[in-house]
C-alpha cells in the first residue's frame, strides 16, 4: 500500500500550516469626556431663541440635537457632563446613545428643588448631570457625590450645586457655577463664582482620593478676561486646563491629547466641547 505522503515519486502531499490567531487589539489608553450646556431649563434668555417649528417641542428637539452630536462622534466619550438640563430630559437619553449610567444633581430655589418651566412645558427639576458608559458601582453613596456650594450669589435665591461620579477609569465631576454680569454686581458675582470654582476642585480632589480626576463644566469664567483668568488660575492650580474658547472648561490631572468643539448655536448658547486625555 503506498505511503499517503508519497503519492508519486518526488511529490509530497502538502499539509495545511497552522495559522496563529490574530493578535488582540491593544486597549485604548485614552479617556474621553464631552461637555454640553444645553440651556434647556426654560428660564434662561437663550430659551426664547430656540427654533420653534409648528408642533415642535424645543426641549425635546434640543435633546434630539444633542443625541445627533453624540452619535456623530467617531468614538463615544467615557463620560458626558451636562449643564442646564432638566431631570425629565434624561429620560431615554442614555438609552439613545447606548450609555448605562447617569447621575442628576439638582439646583435649589431657596430650600426647594428648582423646577423647570418658563418657556417649556414642565420638565422636572433643573440642574446638571453626568452620563457614563458604565453603570455606577454600589453602594452609590461611595461612588456618587453631590453638594450645594457654600458660596452663593446673594442677589438670587438660586442655589447652585456640584456633583461627581467615581468610575473605574477615574473620577468625573461637573458644575455650573454662578453667572457673571457686567455692571455693579460684577465684582460680587466674580468673587462668588471664583469661590465656587475653588470649592468644586477642592471637593473633587478629596472625593477622587488620588484617582485620575476630570472636572468639566460651564464655569462662567473666561480666560481672555484678566480678572476671570486670575480666578481660573486659583481654581485650577496644580492641574491642567483647557477651554472651548469661552466659559466651558475641562480641568484634569491627566494629559490633554486633543480637544475640539462642535456648534449647536441654533439650540443652545454654548458649543459642545470634547477632550481626549491620556
Automatic annotation (TrEMBL):
Signal peptide: 1-25
InterPro entries: Endo/exonu/phosph_ase_sf
Protein name (database record): Endonuclease/exonuclease/phosphatase family protein
Keyword line: Signal
Domain of life: Bacteria
